[in-house]
Amino acid sequence: MTRLLFLVLIGVVFSFDYAKGQQATPDTITGFKLPYEIENGDTIATGTFNNVYVFPQPVFKSKMDEMKYWRLIYNLKIVYPYAKIAGSKFAEMNQHFQTLKNDRERAEYTKQVEKDVRKQFEGQLVNLTITQGRLLIKLVDRETGKTSYDLVKELRGNFSAVFWQTMARLFGSNLKATYDSTGVDKPIEDILKAIDAGYL
Question: Where are the domains positioned within the chain?
Fold first, then answer.
């Protein structure tokens, strides 16, 4: 990565020096113009680069650990888009709730959103594995700032939250699971950042 950045910077400097050495006529100008500043008689090329993220190369204790790592990436790529949709839907609902006059209107709106989400995603979500479901529960907390249990409780009431938590527990999951980006879930966080940056 360092080598690549060095080559890019050399290319920028070289193209700037080359352009400076050419006569500025319409026939000889090629490439693109760089913004510049003049400081103490020196012309300095300036520009803005996109953020560059540097991720350490993963080190594995065994072949099994490496397989688990790549399996985690595979599963995250499946569930992460759903978690992001949940985050945007939740933000959209919160914003729309402010415009509604009473609990009846909010309940009707919630039912409509649930119906729409079911229609669009239920067929896909029922095919998730138990592992993918557990990851999705954690990522929903990451994207919304609320556990899946709290979301069900807010949108459907306490009874539904308790019911679905009981069902989740039967399958070894927990709707109250939280996301800890700097602790136990840091490997997941690093992978998600790499996905967002387009590296994975």
Answer: 2-45, 63-196
Cα separations (Å) of 106 from 125, 133, 162, 163? 25, 28, 21, 22
Question: How many other C-beta atoms are found inside a 10 Å radius of the C-beta of residue 159?
Answer: 10
Q: What is the pTM (predicted TM-score) of this model?
A: 0.68
What residue has token string 């693109």? 32
* Cα–Cα distance for residue pair 103/11, rounded to 1 Å: 62
Q: How far apart are CA 137 and CA 52, in angstroms?
A: 29
Residue with structure tokens 């985050």? Answer: 87
Rounded Cα–Cα distance for residues 29 and 9 (Å): 21
For the chain, list the strands marked E by DSSP: 36-39, 42-45
Q: Could you tell me if 124 and 148 are in contact, meaning their C-beta atoms sit under 8 angstroms apart?
A: no
69 φ/ψ sector (left φ>0, alpha ψ -120 to 50, else beta): alpha
Instruction: Output the tens digit of pLDDT for each of the chain's 200 residues.
Output: 444 443 344 444 444 444 444 444 555 556 667 788 888 888 887 877 777 777 778 889 999 999 999 999 999 999 999 999 888 888 888 888 788 888 888 888 878 877 887 788 778 888 888 899 899 999 999 998 888 888 888 777 787 778 778 877 877 888 889 999 999 999 999 999 999 988 88
